[in-house]
Amino acid sequence: SQQGEEDPQALSIQEGENATMNCSYKTSINNLQWYRQNSGRGLVHLILIRSNEREKHSGRLRVTLDTSKKSSSLLITASRAADTASYFCATDATNFGNEKLTFGTGTRLTIIP
Amino acid sequence: KAGVTQTPRYLIKTRGQQVTLSCSPISGHRSVSWYQQTPGQGLQFLFEYFSETQRNKGNFPGRFSGRQFSNSRSEMNVSTLELGDSALYLCASSWEGLAPGELFFGEGSRLTVL
């Protein structure tokens, strides 16, 4: 079963605009990660935010985490055609050891040149 | 440093056959996880191996099995293939201990069952 649900399922924006996607999860977590997947390829890690952090930046990426609402958002600023991909959040539930990553349903982002 | 290598990249099997997929993790990584990705179910966790021991298992039938060797390379096997087993099988490695950190994924093995 999916721990995370991304919203929206699909998003199309013009190149240069900002893209925001959201992730909601169900149980308490140690950390939350975001991954990108180009069509039919493997996933690439983008950023990790720990449960005691509220915001994190990496280049054009900004991630926020609200543990009270069990939600996270990923903002990509000044989008480029190369950002076209599916984006997944992944969480590890606090299971007192032997945690595993559970992925959300993904947001398919299309950047229109 | 070489990335995660999965072989074969593509394969076609028929119902009832079995298949073995291989994964070579990044050098030094001791944890290997396997995921199944389908359009309908998304990314589903299969199992995770750490130092040759299965540490976590997802909700898949016993037809799905795996193992890890002393050099951290891992294989997964699916027996008595069904049409619904058609999927992209992704392997990921990491060096972390109990709490999962960043996963490094291979390009996947795309299995088609006819």
Element layout with pairings:
The complex is a heterodimer of chains A (113) and B (114).
Chain A: E1 4-7, E2 10-14, E3 19-25, E4 29-37, E5 43-50, E6 55-58, E7 61-66, E8 71-76, E9 85-93, E10 101-103, E11 107-112
Parallel strand pairs in A: 2-11
Antiparallel strand pairs in A: 1-3, 3-8, 4-5, 4-9, 6-7, 7-8, 9-10, 9-11
Chain B: E1 5-7, E2 10-13, E3 19-24, E4 31-38, E5 42-50, E6 53-57, E7 64-68, E8 74-78, E9 87-94, E10 104-105, E11 109-113
Parallel strand pairs in B: 2-11
Antiparallel strand pairs in B: 1-3, 3-8, 4-5, 4-9, 5-6, 7-8, 9-10, 9-11
Keywords:
heterodimer, A: 113 residues, mainly beta, Immunoglobulin-like, 5-stranded antiparallel beta sheet, 11 strands, 0% helix, globular, B: 114 residues, 7-stranded mixed beta sheet, 4-stranded antiparallel beta sheet
Notes on the protein architecture:
The complex is a heterodimer of chains A (113) and B (114). Chain A is mainly beta and 113 residues long. Chain A has no helices and 11 strands. Chain A has strands spanning 4-7, 10-14, 19-25, 29-37, 43-50, 55-58, 61-66, 71-76, 85-93, 101-103, 107-112. The radius of gyration of chain A is 14 Å and the shape is globular. Chain B has strands at 5-7, 10-13, 19-24, 31-38, 42-50, 53-57, 64-68, 74-78, 87-94, 104-105, 109-113. Helix content of chain B is 0%, strand content 53%. In chain B, a hairpin with a 3-residue loop joins strand 4 and strand 5 (42-50). The radius of gyration of chain B is 13 Å and the shape is globular. The interface between A and B is medium-sized, with 26 and 26 residues.
